[in-house]
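tool_call predict_complex ligand=inosinic acid
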Amino acid sequence: MANVIVIGAQWGDEGKGKITDLLSRSADVVVRYQGGVNAGHTIVVKGQTFKLHLIPSGILYSDTECIIGSGTVIDPKVLIAELDQLEELGISTENLYISETAHVTMPYHRLIDLASEERRGNHKIGTTGRGIGPTYADKSERTGIRILDLMDAEGLREQLEWTINYKNVILEKLYNLPPLNVQEVIEEYLGYAERLRRYVVDASLKIYDAIQRRRNILFEGAQGTLLDLDHGTYPFVTSSNPVAGGACVGTGLGPTAIDRAIGVAKAYTTRVGEGPFPTELDGEMGELLCAKGAEFGTTTGRKRRCGWFDAVIGRYAVRINGLDCLAITKLDVLDELDEIKVCVAYEINGERCEHFPTSSRRFQQCHPIYKTLPGWKVPTTNCRSWEELPKQAQDYLKYLAELMAVPIAIVSLGASRDQTIILEDPIHGPKRALLHADGTPASLLSA
Ligand code: IMP
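tool_result ok
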């Protein structure tokens, strides 16, 4: 039995959907612990593409229980559309459970998200516009609506009458927007409540019970480490905690429930939205990575900014999440390149810096120090074992593992489940120390 967290090691969109989908095969329960419909997973199974925003990808396995945890924020309209999509495709949603303490994204959250971004002008964050920040802000302000509130019609009426009237003042006076019709919103959300009622549970208790029964639990993070509210590139971050620590808070479990943490990173780097990105490629190379990697957001369709692999943020992700191993995705995107650069450290004001600077201002001033490696210039999408990978691709992967001092357990070479090389079982394989006893990094494949 092992309980595992899958975390994005960069700025999100690392291909976590495919990796969690693969690992879900060995899981009895998959739990999403933070974020909302800002996330988007694209999963390709037998040529069929599934786009999921809230429901864990484990739903595609008939025996896997899927739980949307208390640390998430739920937009019921989007969730119901997702349920409809799955049911139309003949996929049962019977094994889905929703935490009663998750917060609900309301229409005013979406309106305030969009309006406040516009008001920020040059200081905008580049949010997905899905109301995520305002939903979490209400949670902190203690004016949020939770799933359990949605299930109590009388209480909801009373709570929403007050809250919508309060939000209408903000919409009208601060943003010059028309007010929401209180009764219409209440009726709409009472309708959603009826549709979702059968899925609602005490998720912490349900997961704890599964742990007692020695089930394998997979904790699925959305977004990525550098988008974490506390540990990311603040203020250009999301409003929740994608890092491994967020899995405990976002599910209602203690840290002793977690056995290991797997980081997912692309073989290069992408970022959507605003904020510093030291290895960003503005010219032809950035365009090439974007085109070859189909780097457009699942949720917003926005073009992602592309750049070289950054081992400084990789090392940071290893530290912040306590990663045991990595899954490297989209290696095939680099197939045509003559040479490939990897950022090994930064230069800030003439000084070499090995560690991610916590100050955004300092991060903005970082210039990447690159090491250049030769490309392999042959297609890898059909490689199914380490031995089949070209030598230069093997060397590239070994170098990444060495720089980040963690083994690489999985290499992904395309969107399909079968376009994957599993180097070691990341769930049941041996757990390694990040450093050998003599202090040298324990690296991939060599250990
Ligand atoms: P929000 O989460 O919509 O508030 O957006 C805050 C920041 O997180 C913006 O830079 C978004 O582009 C980014 N973001 C949110 N969700 C994702 C995601 O799933 N992938 C990549 N970036 C995301």
